[in-house]
Specification:
single chain; mainly beta; two-stranded antiparallel ribbon; 10 strands; about 0% helix
Length: about 120
């Protein structure tokens, strides 16, 4: 499986659509998927606004629980990689990141000088 690095700077604003959830590897036993180091894998659904009004939602897998992320919040995705996959007649693209962290906006009135 070939990995393709993704330039997140070109994706515009990334916003959490669905809060982090553990990724399940076996739905019958509810076993949580683990990475090579034994850490649980989590998924976060993120909206991507590429051009104009068109918005896509992608699910990004990340090792370890992303902390402080809530639905609707702007997030920073570090080390985003895309993977092409196929199984029989099915195929698609999966995404994995090194980290997903919340972006904390600075309120305009906190800059000072406002009257």
């Amino acid at each position: 499986m070939q990995s393709i690095p993704v330039d997140t700077a070109r994706l515009g604003v990334l916003r959490c659509a669905i809060a982090p959830e553990t990724k399940i590897s076996n739905f019958e036993t509810q076993e949580v998927k683990k990475d090579r180091d034994g850490n649980p894998v989590w998924t976060v659904a993120v909206t991507v606004r590429q051009d104009g009004r068109r918005i896509s939602v992608i699910e990004i897998a990340v090792s370890g629980e992303p902390k402080g992320i809530q639905e609707g919040q702007v997030v920073k995705v570090t080390g985003l990689t895309a993977f092409m996959w196929s199984m029989g007649d099915r195929h698609g693209v999966s995404f994995r990141a090194d980290a997903i962290t919340p972006v904390h906006a600075t309120p305009a009135h906190a800059k000072g000088g406002d009257v």
